[in-house]
Write a structure and sequence with these properties.
Elements: E1 2-3, E2 31-32, H1 38-41, E3 49-52, E4 61-65, E5 79-80, E6 83-91, E7 104-108, E8 117-120, E9 125-127, E10 133-135, H2 140-160, E11 179-184, H3 187-194, H4 203-208, H5 222-237, E12 241-246, H6 253-263
Parallel strand pairs: 1-3, 2-12, 6-11, 11-12
Antiparallel strand pairs: 3-4, 4-5, 6-7, 7-8, 9-10
């Protein structure tokens, strides 16, 4: 669903940032979206995303729809402009095979957004038994974890400086973001951080066990998990709610396309 300005009377529709009925919802540091808002949305999780268009169709951001309010008279949905939905994805050709020598990340804020990112994952190296430095195979999981960390890092600027919602009357300071939703098609990552079916994420157990699983094996890619925790903690210290949203791959095509753009040689960030 897209939110735009209404030009029928030469005035612009202002997207309002209104508190939810009964006060702001209660969040946990690592909560799962939209489960934490179920009592507000009453099971209606359709069209949770609203894209606010710039008059020039650039710098389009994606926000959380305000479902407890009616649409504007022009038919567009109301949304929380102090929220951002950031879609992330990773891609790795020949994942799990010997030929996996490249991987990439995509970070998607919205259509034609200058802050969208498409970049390759840097190579990593290890020492083999002979002590030689050899390149590690790339993996899809490593690319997706890096995309989450980079997406959280990129979103910080809007929590610190705010953003100017171009299609509307600009009043006072830019709107400072207070709610970040990381959208991913990786059930493993979302379940690990935000839990599932009301259960806490595995990451809380990993932290308590020095990043070892219940069977004693170390958690792979610990440095990326540490990076994600660091970025999330930084946002939390700024008063920002961070949530994680698991979606099917078919609902994350834009971030996937950005990751594949980098693999085709069109990386940018």
């Amino acid at each position: 669903m897209v939110s735009s300005f209404c030009d029928s009377s030469h005035t612009h529709l202002e997207v309002r940032c209104r508190p939810a009925v009964g006060g702001d919802p209660e969040f946990h540091e690592y909560s799962r979206f939209p489960d934490s808002w179920e009592h507000l949305y009453q099971g209606d999780i359709s069209s949770l995303e609203v894209r606010v268009l710039d008059r020039r169709d650039i710098d389009v951001f994606t926000h959380v729809r305000c479902l407890r309010h009616d649409t504007c008279f022009c038919g567009w949905d109301d949304c929380h402009i102090d929220s951002l939905i950031v879609a992330v994805d990773g891609a790795c050709p020949f994942n799990g095979q010997a030929g996996a020598n490249r991987s990439a990340c995509g970070i998607y804020f919205g259509p034609n957004n200058a802050f969208n990112m498409s970049f390759l994952v840097p190579d990593e190296y290890r020492r083999n038994r002979e002590g030689r430095r050899v390149r590690r195979a790339h993996t899809n999981q490593r690319a997706e974890l890096r995309a989450v960390a980079e997406g959280l890092k990129a979103a910080q600027r809007f929590c610190q400086r705010g953003w100017r919602h171009h299609p509307f009357r600009y009043r006072g300071n830019p709107c400072v973001v207070r709610h970040i939703v990381i959208k991913s098609d990786s059930a493993y990552i979302v379940d690990a951080i935000a839990g599932r079916n009301g259960q806490p994420g595995w990451i809380s157990h990993w932290v308590n066990n020095n990043f070892h699983r219940a069977n004693g094996e170390p958690v792979k890619n610990r440095y990326l998990w540490d990076w994600i925790l660091s970025e999330t903690t930084e946002l939390s210290s700024m008063g920002v709610t961070v949530e994680f949203w698991h979606v099917p791959r078919s609902h994350n095509r834009e971030a996937d396309a950005l990751a594949n753009e980098a693999l085709r040689g069109n990386a940018y960030r």
